[in-house]
Amino acid sequence: MHDNLTKLCADEFALHVNELYSKARIETFAGGLEWVEAPVIGLFHQIWDEPAATALKELTRRALAWGARFAIEGPPWAQPLLTSWNDCCRLTQDRGDGQMWLLGNFASSLLGDKWNPAHPSFDRFCRGMMANPGTPAHLRNDPELRRQFSPKRLPGLMSSQMAAALDLTEMRLAAKAAKRTS
Questions:
Q1: What residues pair up with 36 in beta bridges, in sequence order?
Q2: Which position among 49, 78, 114, 141 has the lowest Cβ density within 10 Å, counted as fewest Cβ atoms?
Q3: Which are the contacts of 130, defined by CB distance < 8 A and separation ≥ 6?
Q4: Across 34-52, average pLDDT
Q5: What is the torsional sign of CA 133, 135, 137, 142?
Q6: Cα–Cα distance, 126 to 102 (Å, whole number)
Q7: pLDDT by residue (tens digit) across 103-138?
């Protein structure tokens, strides 16, 4: 019962955050005096938007919890865990350093999953990325990365574009279901 309730709450929270994003009430970059930046995660909400502020406070709490977990489970070279969108994007752009690219993708995946506690660990995620045909070949075939993260398929691993499309689809289905019940 407890696991079902936790999953239901996490799903509802994720749908709420997706809805706030789609209505441009949460931004990755915003200018002007009416926007407030959430600490730790670097996302913005409008100063008057209490639901968005509350959602970003929860995302910040989750990011800090993942940061504490990562400090224990993550490799020393990857500390501290990146939690802001800008930092994640910076690392995923550089494909020269395979470790940093994997770290950036892991942090981006966590952010996209709203720092879900059930997200795969860093090691498991990296092993999945090393087995993923979408990972650049020069990284997949790097002997040092393969030694560090022996490839092992990770069910459910998808590109950020696929995840965004899935989030949007789920949000639209939830909105339709809400209209039918009201």
A1: 45
A2: 141
A3: 139, 140, 145, 146, 149, 150, 151, 152
A4: 88
A5: negative
A6: 6
A7: 998 998 898 888 999 899 999 999 998 998 888 898
DSSP symbols for 24-90 = TSEESS--STTEEEPTTT--EEETT-HHHHHHHHHHHHHHHHHHHHHHHHS-GGGPSPP-SHHHHHH
* 35-37 β-sheet, strand order: 26-27, 44-46, 35-37
Bridge-partner residues for 35, per DSSP?
46
Distance of alpha carbon 29 from its chain centroid, rounded?
16
DSSP letter assigned to residue 120: P
Separation between Cα atoms, residue 71 and residue 142, nearest integer Å: 26
- CA pair distance 170, 80, nearest whole angstrom: 32
Q: How far apart are CA 92 and CA 106, in angstroms?
A: 9
Nearest to 178 by CA among 6, 16, 3: 16
Peptide bond into 76 cis (omega under 30): no
Sign of dihedral through CA atoms 84, 163, 31, 55? Answer: negative
- φ/ψ of 113, rounded to 5, equals -90, 10
pTM tops 0.70: yes
- Report in angstroms the alpha-carbon separations of 142 from 13, 64, 134, 138: 39, 32, 15, 6
